[in-house]
Design goal:
Dna Ligase, domain 1; magnesium; globular; about 350 residues; magnesium ion binding; DNA polymerase, domain 1; DNA_pol_Y-fam_little_finger; Alpha-Beta Plaits; alpha+beta; 3 domains
Length: about 350
């Protein structure tokens, strides 16, 4: 029996944070907007399409963003508002399918193979979803429609903003060959540069490489690259996907060298993470502290234990032990972050004294 081809939609809101700000403040419409803070040590969290035309992107230092776009308007982030709007959007999704896999506040995969609304095609379903989102939130979304998740995600970016694109089974493999590998999910900037050095710049270049060649150069990722070069992705839309981590980080207004100030920053980030964990009753067994120095050198320290961290004090203790393994420091510290991962079922015995396993990563 031939398996029924899946019908997958990837919905991605257009410049979500910035679009919410432009929606709520008409004076911002048509202007280059960055969500973030304009101070010297600030970072852009999101940018409107008007700002992107000047090369302003998320994670760009604010001072660089202002050099590229002197008329850039900064607005502080309002994450509570973004979460509320995200809930509205996910309520729309739920009218069309139960198979929803959120990726973030502003994007998700939907499996509409069952056609619960009787709209006949995934294309018409995607149009209806986008129309509902616009009507109920005043925001536009783009959508990609295809027979697997990899292609649907690629397709949603193809007609941005406020558009949709479909990749059918008869066009998928050939279409992938025409695309730059830098657009592929799972190929970040470092990997894309490595591929470029290996003369792999397009999907066709990637497809031409043998699995053995890819294993030699990319290890455990080789099979994924080998498959997506052929437009293949068997991953189902998983509505029960477990979040793998929760983290928070901050960039200081000036470089810190005093241990007490650095530790205070780490504890504040730990509190942010703990609030998320406690609210969702999601507790992890691994705590990671991240440090970025003034010279932008980055290092992490990680601690794991056999039971989950189920109290704020335990998280504080683990985070402090990790940061203290890097103190004192002569180099200024620019940024610190704390992440909890390796989520597990809550166990009755909490770990107050945690066996330490430290892993360093530059």
């Amino acid at each position: 029996m031939t398996a029924v081809a899946r019908k997958i939609i990837h919905v991605d809101m257009d410049a979500f944070f910035a679009s919410v700000e432009q929606r709520d403040d008409p004076s911002l419409r048509g202007r280059p907007v960055a969500v973030g803070h304009a101070e010297a040590r600030g970072v852009v969290a999101a940018a409107s399409y008007e700002a992107r035309a000047f090369g302003v992107r998320s994670a760009l230092p604010s001072i660089t963003a202002l050099r590229r776009c002197p008329d850039l308007v900064f607005v502080p982030p309002r994450f509570d508002v973004y979460r509320d709007v995200s809930r509205q959007i996910h309520d729309v999704f739920a009218r069309y399918t139960d198979l929803i896999q959120p990726l973030s506040l502003d994007e998700a995969y939907l499996d509409v193979t069952a056609d619960e609304r009787g709209l006949k095609t995934a294309w018409l379903t995607a149009k209806a979803i986008r129309a509902d989102i616009l009507a109920e939130t005043g925001l536009t979304a783009s959508a990609g429609v295809s027979y697997n998740k990899f292609l649907a995600k690629l397709a949603s970016d193809h007609r941005k903003p406020n558009g949709q694109f479909a990749v059918t089974p008869d066009m998928g493999p050939a279409w992938v060959e025409t695309l730059p590998v830098s657009r592929f999910h799972g190929v970040g900037p470092v990997t894309a540069e490595k591929m470029r050095r290996l003369k792999i710049e397009t999907g066709a270049d990637l497809k031409a490489k043998s699995l053995a060649f890819l294993q030699q150069h990319f290890g455990s990722s080789a099979e994924w690259y080998h498959a997506i070069a052929r437009g293949e992705d068997d991953r189902p839309v998983n509505p029960h996907r477990v979040r793998k981590s929760s983290g928070s980080e901050t960039t200081f207004n000036c470089d810190l060298v005093e241990a007490a100030e650095i530790e205070a920053g780490v504890l504040k980030m730990a509190d942010d993470v703990w609030n998320w964990c406690e609210t969702r009753q999601a507790f992890g067994r691994t705590v990671t502290v991240k440090v970025k120095y003034a010279d932008f050198h980055q290092i992490t320290r990680r601690r794991s234990q056999p039971v989950a961290v189920t109290s704020r004090d335990a998280l504080h203790g683990a985070a402090l032990a990790l940061i203290r393994s890097l103190l004192p420091t002569e180099k200024g510290v620019r940024l610190v972050g704390v992440t909890v991962s390796n989520f597990a079922e809550v166990q009755t015995e909490a770990a107050d004294e945690l066996p330490i396993f430290v892993e360093a990563a530059a």
